[in-house]
Amino acid sequence: MNFITVESYDKLSKRAASLIAAQVLMKPNCVLGLATGSSPIGIYKKLIEWNRAGDLDFSKTVSVNLDEYIGLDGTNDQSYRYFMQTQLFDHVNILPENTYVPNGCAADLAKECEEYDARIERLGGIDLQLLGIGLDGHIGFNEPGDAFISPTHVIDLHESTIQANARFFASEAEVPRQAVTMGIGAIMKAKKVLLIANGKAKKEIVQKAFFGPITPAVPASILQLHPDLTVVFSEE
């Protein structure tokens, strides 16, 4: 594990964006696993800036996202498809047909989960997976539990996750209670994993996840077993 501590969110964003840019430069047709939430926004701004400057080309790059709320389609401004379009995809030269986000409105969610894993396999797996970490140690929407769940699956969101995400909605009641999430299996099969954690509020869970026991009660702890893991933590 490569553990990097920086002083500010801006430095975290630059450092993480540089690692993603290096992956794209080394392998233009790479598969990037992408994440949503407030933490990656600064990273995406840097990538947009470098793309517009002509220093970074996404025309051959493929992206697969971690998760999506069940019941929200891509036109809903709280869906993760909408987030990715507005925060990154609409502002760089990645091809729309090369961007994949789980379909939380699929008629057959079990089939959607199976096909999502199959698609990742057809693409040759993920070259670099970007992750955030929840205050309870979840990655994607892999919530704390009794076992690590390997395939993409439907998850009932924990109350703490619903409360944490309520700030993005008009009220907590509007936060979906379920999501489709990439499983631990696809995440662990990624050739590289880049996890970002911002601020003092994340310090305790980062300590548990990366310097404590490996346990499904802290899903991110499984990443200790990944052969190429980089964690960038901002003390801001």
Number of helices: 7
Q: Rg from C-alpha positions? A: 16 Å
Count of distinct strands:
10
| Main beta sheet strand tally, sense and closure | 7 strands, parallel
| Portion in strands | 15-25%
The helix-and-strand class reads alpha/beta
- Give the overall pLDDT as a whole number: 96
Classified by CATH, the class is Alpha Beta
Unreliable segments (pLDDT under 50, ≥5 consecutive)?
A: none
Instruction: Briefly note the CATH topology name.
Output: Rossmann fold
N- and C-termini, Cα separation = 22 Å
List the quaternary state of the chains: single chain
Task: Give helix % range.
Answer: 25-40%
Q: Which strand order does the major sheet show?
A: 1-10-9-6-2-3-5
Order of helices and strands: EHEHEEHEHEEHEHEHE
Provide the domain count.
1
Describe it.
- The protein is α/β, with parallel strands linked by helices.
- It contains 7 helices and 10 strands.
- It has a single domain, classed as Rossmann fold.
- It has a 7-stranded parallel beta sheet, covered by helices on one side.
- The two termini are 22 Å apart.
In short:
The chain is 31% helix and 18% strand.
Tell me the layout of helices and strands.
Elements: E1 2-6, H1 9-26, E2 31-34, H2 41-52, E3 62-65, E4 67-69, H3 80-87, E5 99-100, H4 109-122, E6 128-131, E7 153-156, H5 159-165, E8 178-181, H6 184-189, E9 192-198, H7 203-211, E10 229-234
Parallel strand pairs: 1-10, 2-3, 2-6, 3-5, 6-9, 9-10
Antiparallel strand pairs: 4-8, 7-8
Helix pairs in contact: 1-2
Which keywords apply here?
seven-stranded parallel sheet; 236 residues; 7 helices; three-stranded antiparallel sheet; Rossmann fold
